[in-house]
Amino acid sequence: MKQTILSAVLVAAALPVMAQQVKYSVSGTYADSGKKVYLFDRLTDKAIDSLVVADGKFSFSGTAAKDAFMAVVAENQNWVTEFFNDGTPITVNLNDSTLTGSAQNERLAHYYADLDKPIKAFMLKYNSLSNEEKKLREADFVSEYNKLMASQLDFINKVFKEERNSLVPLAFAATYFFNHGVEAYDRLVSEQVPFASHPYLRKACDEVIRALHPKDDQKTAFIGQQYTDLEMAAPDGTMHKISELVGPGKWVLVDFWASWCGPCRAEMPNVVEAYNEYHTKGFEVIGVSFDQKKEAWVNAIGQLKMPWLQISDLRGWNCAAAPVYMINSIPDNILIDPQGKIIDRALRGNALKSRLRKIFGD
Q1: Could you tell me the strand order of the sheet in which 46-52 lies?
Q2: Per-residue model confidence (pLDDT) at position 214
Q3: Is the previous residue joined to 118 through a cis bond, with omega within 30 degrees of 0?
Q4: How many CB atoms lie within 10 A of CB 115?
């Protein structure tokens, strides 16, 4: 059950507080005696206790908010073992990330293990190849990776459905909101799911909002401004501009992507679906590729079945779009209204369709 530790963030003052305190008891084993092990509160991402492993063992005890989302991590690990403080003692093995405790916490551990297995197998296969073999099989690996990402999203959707009456979905909330849009938070609250009042759900939503639209970020500053035109070549060599699409009745998504970008390819079915649904109502898309190899770019357009205009200067990260729109990671996009104003950015997953539903009234 491995998960990257999130950076420490401030928790909104308006969050509900879990007032009831219950005892926790966490015992465990870890092979590296002499190393420190930390007990974290995942709501604040701050350590609430720490100790040194002695003879391969450690234990924590104390009180914390009932159902608090907590985690154990060793000092030389970049992943955490998570659990809910539901009053049942737990035992963790940091050597293999196994956990025993309440049925709820054991299910959480199993979900993490099941989510990890395909990625571990993929990385094992990929890392066993030479650099030459990796290059030769690049297209196959990108395709396999995209399928893995899609299956992981399906897995998390399944967790939210099957574990609707437990706290387990909280552990996967950030990924869920990235895929379904932050509007999913309001839906969960309105549906009064048992975990809706847990403060970690609001935290996960806020983290996604900050990731997509960071406060005072240069990228976010483009929202509300007039777009800057770009001119690049289409695959057939003809030159095209964004301005060819912008105008009355048109809402234009400028999609920054590349054939070698796994997350871009994983996101593309969402864009294709949105295009097919709203194109006749005035929704346009123009792809701006950060590719360097024309063949890979053209092949990806066909593989991903993108029917809209594609342009690129084939300069990779030196693409002309990068400095104009402060692009340092992809996928990224901007949404331009009929007056040429940028009204949104970084619309991913269901967030794009949710935005379009508001525009077109569906």
Answers
A1: 46-52, 36-41, 69-74, 81-84
A2: 57
A3: no
A4: 19
Q: How many other β-carbons are positioned within 10 Å of the β-carbon of residue 136?
A: 11
Residue with tokens 């492993």: 53
What backbone phi and psi angles, to 5 degrees, belong to 194?
Answer: -55, -30
Amino acid (one-letter) located at 167: L
Query: Is residue 194 reached through a cis peptide bond, with omega within 30 degrees of 0 on the bond before it?
Result: no
0.70 exceeded by the pTM?
Answer: no
pLDDT digits (tens, 9 = 90+) for 101-159: 999 999 999 999 999 888 888 888 888 888 888 878 877 777 787 778 778 888 999 99
Integer Cα distance of 282 and 251 in angstroms: 6
Angle at 317 between CA 240 and CA 299, to 5 degrees: 60
Question: For residue 15, what pLDDT band results from cuts at 50, 70 and 90?
Answer: very low
- Phi-psi category of 26—alpha, beta or left, where left has phi over 0 and alpha has psi -120 to 50? beta
